[in-house]
C-alpha cells in the first residue's frame, strides 16, 4: 500500500467572543488539516499545530513530494525519511509541525487499513473512558474587577457540568493572578485546579506565584517560564512542591530529552500535532517513563488532535504503577471552536466529562467534508 496523494486544507473561523492569555488575544482560529490517501483508496486525516498558511507550504511543497510512493503503513520509516530530508535546516519548528500532521494522518490510515483503533496500535487500550479536565478561564477585554468574578462563574459552570479538574490562565499580571488563584480555590474547594502562565513570568515572579499555588493546593503549574530556560526551570522546581508541567512548545525525543535532563520538569505535555506526531509522542513517553515522569498531551485545535490524545492516554500507563494510580486527565479546551465542534460527522463522545475512547479503526472520528469546506480558505493536492 503506497502513499498516492496528499491534500491539505487551511481552515479558518472567526470567533464571536475573542479570548486572551498572557501573551495576546485571538479573534479567529486557524488550523491545517491533512488527508493522506493510499493507492488502495484508504485514507487518513491529521492536523498540524502552528501557523496554518506557512505549515501548508511545508507539507505541500516540501514533504508531500518526498513521500509519495512510500509504504503508507510504514509510519516509522516515513517519519525518519521526512526527518532526514529536512535535518540540515529544520530540526524543529514549523517543519516539525508539518511532519506531525502527516504522521497523525498515517496513523489514522494505518488503523483503517488494519482494522484497529489507534490506541490498539499504540499498545492496547487500558481504559474505555479517559477523564477530562476543562481548559478555560481565558482573559477577556474587561476591567479586572469584572473579569475576576466572570472567570469564577465560568469555572463554577464547569464544576456544575461535573468536571473534577480544570485549568485556569495566569500571567496577566502578578497582582491580578494572586487574587484569581485565591478566589478560584475559595470558590471551588474540592476541585483539582491547575494554572498555566504560557511562559509569562520571570524567575522571581514564577517563584512567588508558585508558592501561592502550593499554598492553595493546585495540582500543576504549567509553563511558568520561557521554554528556552531549562536552568531557570530547575531553580524554580528546587523551590516549589507543586509539579511543574511544560512541553507544548517542545518537539522530538531529542528536545524532550534535553528538557528532562534540565531537571526542572515533573510532567511532560507534548502536542501530538506539533511534537513530531503520534510516532514521536510514543518515543517521548518512553523517555518520560525511563525517567519516572508522566506525559499528558497538550491538546488544541480540532477533533483530530483530541482523538489522537484520547488514544494516547487510553494506552498510557501511569508512572509509577500502583493499584490506585493518579488519573491522567485529558485536556479538553472549552473555548469556542467551530473547527472542533461543527465539522465532524463522527466525533469523540463525551460522557460525564470523560472522553469515550473510539473503538472503530483509526482515530475513530470522521470529518463532514461539506461542513469543512465552509471554513476552507486554501487547499492543495499533491500526487
Ligand atoms: Mg499551555
**CATH level-1 class of the largest domain:** Alpha Beta
Order of helices and strands: EEEHHHHEHEHEHEHEHEHEHEHEEEEHE
Largest sheet: 10 strands, mixed
Strand coverage percent? 15-25%
Bound molecules: magnesium ion
- The count of domains is 2
Unreliable stretches, pLDDT < 50, 5 or more residues? Answer: none
Shape: globular
CATH fold category name of the largest domain: TIM Barrel
Classify the helix fraction into a percent range.
25-40%
List its traits.
383 residues; alpha/beta; Enolase-like, domain 1; TIM Barrel; 2 domains; ten-stranded mixed sheet; four-stranded antiparallel sheet; 13 helices; globular; binds magnesium ion
Describe this structure in words.
This protein is α/β, with parallel strands linked by helices and 383 residues long. It is 40% helix and 23% strand. The strands form three sheets. Strands 4, 5, 6, 7, 8, 9, 10, 11, 13 and 14 form a ten-stranded mixed β-sheet that branches. A four-stranded antiparallel β-sheet has the order 3-2-1-16. A hairpin with a 2-residue loop joins β13 and β14 (354-356). The structure holds magnesium ion. The site of magnesium ion has 6 residues, from loops. Magnesium ion binds next to loops.
Annotate the secondary structure layout.
Elements: E1 3-20, E2 25-38, E3 43-48, H1 52-67, H2 75-86, H3 94-114, H4 118-121, E4 129-135, H5 144-161, E5 165-169, H6 174-187, E6 192-196, H7 203-215, E7 220-222, H8 230-239, E8 243-246, H9 252-261, E9 267-268, H10 277-290, E10 294-295, H11 303-314, E11 330-333, H12 338-341, E12 344-346, E13 350-351, E14 354-356, E15 366-367, H13 369-373, E16 376-382
Parallel strand pairs: 4-5, 4-11, 5-6, 6-7, 7-8, 8-9, 9-10
Antiparallel strand pairs: 1-2, 1-16, 2-3, 4-14, 12-15, 13-14
Helix pairs in contact: 1-3, 2-3, 3-10, 5-6, 6-7, 7-8, 9-10
Amino acid at each position: 500500500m503506497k502513499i498516492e496523494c496528499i491534500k491539505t486544507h487551511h481552515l479558518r473561523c472567526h470567533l464571536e467572543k475573542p479570548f486572551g492569555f498572557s501573551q495576546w488575544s485571538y479573534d479567529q482560529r486557524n488550523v491545517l488539516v491533512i488527508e493522506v490517501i493510499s493507492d488502495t483508496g484508504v485514507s487518513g486525516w491529521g492536523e498540524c499545530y502552528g501557523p496554518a498558511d506557512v505549515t501548508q507550504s511545508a507539507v505541500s511543497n516540501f514533504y508531500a513530494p518526498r513521500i509519495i510512493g512510500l509504504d503508507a503503513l510504514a509510519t516509522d520509516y516515513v517519519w525518519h525519511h521526512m526527518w532526514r530530508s529536512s535535518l540540515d535546516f529544520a530540526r524543529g519548528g514549523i517543519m516539525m509541525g508539518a511532519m506531525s500532521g502527516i504522521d497523525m494522518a498515517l496513523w489514522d490510515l494505518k488503523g483503517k487499513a488494519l482494522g484497529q483503533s489507534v490506541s490498539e496500535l499504540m499498545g492496547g487500550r487500558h481504559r474505555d473512558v479517559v477523564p477530562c479536565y476543562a481548559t478555560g478561564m481565558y482573559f477577556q477585554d474587561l476591567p479586572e474587577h469584572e473579569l475576576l468574578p466572570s472567570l469564577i462563574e465560568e469555572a463554577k459552570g464547569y464544576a456544575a457540568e461535573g468536571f473534577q479538574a480544570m485549568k485556569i490562565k495566569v500571567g496577566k499580571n502578578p497582582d491580578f493572578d494572586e487574587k484569581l488563584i485565591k478566589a478560584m480555590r475559595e470558590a471551588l474547594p474540592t476541585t483539582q485546579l491547575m494554572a498555566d502562565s504560557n511562559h509569562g513570568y520571570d524567575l522571581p515572579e514564577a517563584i512567588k506565584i508558585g508558592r501561592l499555588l502550593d499554598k492553595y493546593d493546585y495540582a500543576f503549574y504549567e509553563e511558568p517560564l520561557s521554554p528556552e530556560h531549562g536552568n531557570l526551570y530547575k531553580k524554580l522546581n528546587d523551590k516549589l512542591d507543586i509539579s511543574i508541567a511544560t512541553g507544548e512548545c517542545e518537539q522530538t525525543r531529542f528536545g524532550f530529552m534535553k528538557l528532562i535532563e534540565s531537571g526542572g520538569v515533573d510532567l511532560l505535555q507534548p502536542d501530538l500535532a506539533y511534537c513530531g506526531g503520534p510516532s514521536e509522542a510514543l518515543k517521548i513517553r518512553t523517555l518520560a517513563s525511563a525517567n519516572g515522569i508522566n506525559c499528558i498531551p497538550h491538546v488544541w485545535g480540532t477533533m483530530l488532535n483530541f482523538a489522537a490524545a484520547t488514544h494516547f492516554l487510553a494506552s498510557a500507563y501511569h508512572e509509577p504503577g500502583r493499584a490506585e494510580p493518579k488519573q491522567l486527565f485529558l485536556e479538553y479546551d472549552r473555548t469556542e471552536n467551530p473547527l472542533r465542534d461543527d465539522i465532524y460527522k463522527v466525533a469523540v463522545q463525551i460522557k460525564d466529562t470523560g472522553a469515550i475512547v473510539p473503538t472503530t479503526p483509526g482515530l475513530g472520528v470522521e470529518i463532514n467534508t461539506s461542513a469543512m469546506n465552509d471554513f476552507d480558505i486554501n487547499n492543495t493536492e499533491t500526487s
